[in-house]
Amino acid sequence: MIRSLPAITLLSCLAATSAVADATDDRIHELEHLFVNAMVLNGPEVVDCTLSGGAQSTCFTITVKAEPQDYEPGPWCPTSGSDGPELAGKWFVDGEFVDADGAFMASLADVYDDPKWQMVDPETGEIKVTDSLEQCAAAARPDVGAEYENFCVVCEASYMDEDAAVTYTIPLEPVAQDNPMPTNQTGSGVAFNGIRLDGPAPVDAILGAYTVAPFDDCGGHVNLHVGYHYHAATDCLETTAQDDGGDAPVIGIAMDGYDIRANLGVQDPTLDECNGHDQGDGYHYHAGEEGANLILGCMTAQAGCVAEDAGAKCDASARPPRP
Ligand SMILES: [Zn+2]
Ligand SMILES: [Zn+2]
To answer: What pLDDT is recorded for position 242?
Structure first.
């Protein structure tokens, strides 16, 4: 005979279960609001997931198009040495977010103290810019051919498949890990406009090929995997609707589930090595400065997944190294 549980235990079990369900519902509802300005194709909805450290967890998943709804990305490359900053994007130089305009492109030999740089044709004043899917793919590879030396590299969003989308699967409750994990494999997270907050851009590899792959004024450019994505968190991500609660506004969610707030603008001694802290209102990160090439350097909890195919089940512990 099965011994029946005292009624009181059953009741409190049911109450606890529905409290968890309510909290999950509330969070999903909150996420729907936070992503209201993103181009959402599916979600947010609750799924099982395996995090980067192997934890079995509960995640939300959301599939978005990498298209900001409130501005047109670009411009990126100037086409002439006389093009001003309004015709060009930005680049990272010594921690600064500088205009990558014609004058800058003409100064690269001085900036990098290497006469091999000659982005601007001394005869015509023109700048060579990649102008096709094939050139974008060839010049954005890790092993760029010498024929692309002194090219300004741009990939257009129009090179992406019509139905290209990115799926983020992120823990509803962060799960701690022993050692902070760098973001160069996972990316930093996703902004509430649905655009990827990426890990650091491989600036040394890009410069090593004598190319520049500028970001637009919002800190974004396009690759053929996730489309438009950010390497800097700029004020493009801050809206007047955001409640900052006395801190910098929340601009997105990290891959480990913690909030990412805007850069603080000051060196705050309470920030840990991953630029996170808990000021009594819950642990969160602050994005690095615009020119730092570091939206987040690392994460203190286990990361979820970012995928180009929406149906994939998230197992972040099995993620192959990024090429
Ligand atoms: Zn990039
Ligand atoms: Zn803070």
So the answer is: 60
Ligand that comes closest to the CA of residue 285: 2
Strands (E), 183-245: 189-191, 196-197, 211-212, 220-223, 227-230
Supply the pLDDT for residue 245: 64
Distances (CA, A) of 213 to 50, 77, 240: 34, 8, 31
Tell me if residue 136 falls in helix, strand or coil.
helix
Ligand 1 centroid to residue 84 C-alpha, Å: 23
Residues 228, 233, 236: CA angle, nearest 5 degrees: 75
Q: What is the pLDDT of residue 206?
A: 94
Tell how far the Cα of 315 is from the centroid of ligand 2, in angstroms: 30
Distance 280 CA to ligand 1 centre (A): 34
Give the per-residue pLDDT at 111.
Answer: 98
Q: Please count the residues of the chain.
A: 323
pLDDT score, position 1? 44
Q: What is the largest CA-CA distance in the chain?
A: 95
| 271 CA distance to ligand 2 middle (Å) | 8
| pLDDT score recorded for residue 185 | 83
Q: State in Å: Cα 232 to ligand 1 middle.
A: 10
Of 79, 145, 67, 135, which is closest to residue 106 (Cα–Cα)? 79
Q: Which residues contact 6 (CB under 8 A, 6 or more apart)?
A: none
Q: Which ligand is nearest to the CA of 225?
A: 1
CA of 234 to the centre of ligand 1 (A): 15
Residue ranges for the chain with pLDDT beneath 70: 1-17, 240-245, 319-323
Tokens describing residue 90: 């930005």
What local confidence, expressed as pLDDT, does residue 321 receive? 47
Please tell me whether residue 84 adopts helix, strand or coil conformation. coil
* CA 286 / ligand 1 centre spacing (Å): 20
